[in-house]
């Protein structure tokens, strides 16, 4: 494993000796993956795929996919996106060779993909052959008053399964390519976002499995992969025992879990939370440190129920809290297997995980 240099590097080596939890990273660009590896990340806990879709070279195809009124139109756009997604994942698997990689299927607030400028509409109209008037009507149909509680996460996969099918295919094909190059096993962990019911997970897992089987049949080679879920809605935490009968791992998305448990928008919280902390309404900013009495209880309950339903269920956290030392201590107490944080927080998380393990052993 690459080490940080000097005294700090030595400290990190000591810390790693005392650590129980693994430290992974939240990264989706090759540059971030490489930095995280250098800082000692032991895998990717969250590869968000939304930003890949915002790439200027792809956005027209993405808009075509979203705005198509039929599956045929969506599939035409997805065919164009598939090779690009495959190479995104090939690059990531290469950089992270030998380490686990969790890739989360698309979870955008939909409105971020919609065209706004006249020239955006022109580009989509040209690519899709659909008139600008029809595209505008479709955009108004898709408008949401509260996109963060709207048609995002697996809800998108339920309505447009072909998007998740394309992504699953790209992941499996990329994993087979890199496994072929290195001769080492690549075991992708495919993660379904914003799951609320077991049925959602079941439907999405079926899409992933079908796509994987099609790739195996076409290429004559197989590999192992896992399908797991984010736990980022209170309902999912409550239903964790049932969901764990289907899901092979859980990753706690504490950004959304905090937003939905407290009913405070993660995007607007800054406006009044400091007053709340000053006046003792909340002990700390709950979007930074796990709110032990609220989100914390849900995490520990879901971990318990999940593990009771599935022996050895792998548990991690990938919300921003995964890089917060106080929250990392909490994760140790709950017995999570890993924390995942942004690349530059990896050394802090290694240290905090070691301190937490030491404290727990006393
Ligand atoms: C989360 O909700 O905690 C999470 C990691 O997902 P995102 O921040 O991408 O919504
Ligand atoms: Mg989330």
From TrEMBL:
Which residues does the record give as Mg(2+) binding sites?
232, 256
Q: Which residues bind substrate?
A: 48, 104, 232, 253-256
Q: Where is the active site?
A: 318 (proton donor)
Segments forming domain PEP-utilising enzyme C-terminal? 5-356
According to the lineage, what is the superkingdom? Bacteria
- Tell me, what does this protein do in biology? Catalyzes the reversible phosphorylation of pyruvate and phosphate.
Q: Which family does the UniProt entry place this protein in?
A: Belongs to the PEP-utilizing enzyme family.
The molecule here is called Pyruvate, phosphate dikinase
Species this chain originates from: Sphingosinicella soli
Q: Which residues of the full protein are shown?
A: 527 to 888 of 888
């Amino acid at each position: 494993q690459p080490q940080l240099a000097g005294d700090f590097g030595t400290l990190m080596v000591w810390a790693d000796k005392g650590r129980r939890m693994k430290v992974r990273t939240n990264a989706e660009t090759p540059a971030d993956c490489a930095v995280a590896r250098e800082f000692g990340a032991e895998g990717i806990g969250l590869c968000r795929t939304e930003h890949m879709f915002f790439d200027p070279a792809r956005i027209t195809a993405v808009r075509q996919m979203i705005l198509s009124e039929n599956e045929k139109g969506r599939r035409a756009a997805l065919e164009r996106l598939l090779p690009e997604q495959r190479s995104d994942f090939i690059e990531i698997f290469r950089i992270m060779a030998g380490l686990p990689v969790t890739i989360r299927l698309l979870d955008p607030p939909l409105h971020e993909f919609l065209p706004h400028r006249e020239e955006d509409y022109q580009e989509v109209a040209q690519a899709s052959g659909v008139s600008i008037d029809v595209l505008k009507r479709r955009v108004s149909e898709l408008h949401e008053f509260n996109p963060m509680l709207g048609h995002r996460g697996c809800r998108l996969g339920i309505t447009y399964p072909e998007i998740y099918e394309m992504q699953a295919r790209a992941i499996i094909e990329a994993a087979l390519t890199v496994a072929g190059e290195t001769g080492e096993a690549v075991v992708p962990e495919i993660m379904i976002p914003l799951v609320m019911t077991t049925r959602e997970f079941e439907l999405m897992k079926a899409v992933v499995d079908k796509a994987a089987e099609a790739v195996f049949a076409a290429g004559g080679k197989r590999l192992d992969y896992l399908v797991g879920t984010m736990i980022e809605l209170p309902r999912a935490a409550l239903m964790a025992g049932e969901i764990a009968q289907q899901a092979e791992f859980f990753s706690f998305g504490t950004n959304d879990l905090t937003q939905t448990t407290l009913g405070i928008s993660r995007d607007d919280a800054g406006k009044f939370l400091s007053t709340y902390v000053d006046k003792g309404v909340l002990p700390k900013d709950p979007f930074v440190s796990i709110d032990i009495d609220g989100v914390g209880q849900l995490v520990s309950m879901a971990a318990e129920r999940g593990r009771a339903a599935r022996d050895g269920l792998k548990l991690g956290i990938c919300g921003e809290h995964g890089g917060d030392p106080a929250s990392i201590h909490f994760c140790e107490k709950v017995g999570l297997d890993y924390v995942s944080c942004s690349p530059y927080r990896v050394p802090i998380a290694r240290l905090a995980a070691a301190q937490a393990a030491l404290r727990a052993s006393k």
